[in-house]
Structures are given as C-alpha cells and as structure tokens.
Design a protein that fits this description.
By secondary structure, the protein is of the alpha+beta class. The protein has three helices and four strands. Helix 2 packs across helix 3. The longest helix is centred in the last third of the chain and has 21 residues. The chain is elongated.
C-alpha cells in the first residue's frame, strides 16, 4: 500500500513538472523578433520583375557557421539556388547541412520566394538560408 502511494505521488509530481515546462525556442526564431543587425525579410512576389541572372545573397552568420546562397532567376522566376557556404565545422554540422539544404532548395523552387518552411532539426541553418535567399532576391528586384 505504501509503495503504491509513493509511486502514485511520484508520478503525479512528474506529470505536474512536465506540464509546467515551456518548450524551448531560440530567441532569434521567435515570431516577430530578429537578431540585432539582421534586416527584416521583405516580400518578393514572383512575376513582379523580369530579372534574369545569378544574384548572390548576403553571408548570414548563424550559431553554427555562415550560410550563403546564390539564386538564378530567368524572367523573374527562381530556376536554381546554389549553396555557397553552409555550417561544416564538424561531422554533425555536415550531416545536418546535407539533409536540410536540398530540402530548403526544393521549398524555394516550389514557393518561388524566400517564404519557406524551416527544416526540423536545422533551425539555424534554415534561418540563415532564408535570410541569404531573401537578400539575393532583393538584389534581383532592386
């Protein structure tokens, strides 16, 4: 009887503790906030410009290393995105980049903009990718 009471109260305390915890989200990724010195992303509608060429985005410093992309446009449509820099300090960074970057590129080609979903497990790389892509698109539409 005593063991059952002890196990029940221990399980109850654990559940209450877990429910009280808030999920962790890096400050730079919270809605409406940006890291200092980072310009706010701007909307770039496809078809708003007939730009053709390759435009290099800004290098974005992330927690795990720099991210930079170059975008190729033909008559204002994104036809290719080339990753120029990605985090690669260690094997884990390389593994995440190898997983996330092709998915981010496919998202960008499908969306025809920098307004794409982040890849789970690669939040910082995704944020750097979209910021660099947006800066390249801004150059193309300037």
């Amino acid at each position: 009887m005593r063991r059952a009471l002890l196990a029940t109260s221990g399980a109850s305390a654990l559940v209450v503790t877990l429910l009280a915890l808030k999920p962790h989200q890096p400050p730079a990724l919270q809605a409406g906030s940006r890291s200092p010195g980072t310009p706010a992303p701007t909307s770039s509608a496809s078809g708003a410009s007939t730009s053709t060429g390759t435009f290099t985005g800004d290098t974005v410093q992330t927690r795990y290393g720099p991210v930079q992309v170059a975008v190729t446009l033909v008559k204002g449509r994104i036809t290719a995105v080339k990753v120029l820099q990605a985090p690669d300090r260690n094997g884990r960074d390389q593994q995440i980049a190898a997983y996330a970057l092709p998915r981010l590129t496919q998202e960008a080609l499908g969306a025809q903009s920098a307004h794409i979903d982040a890849v789970s497990g690669a939040s910082y790389t995704s944020q750097g990718y979209t910021q660099s892509l947006q800066s390249a698109l801004d150059q193309a539409h300037a």
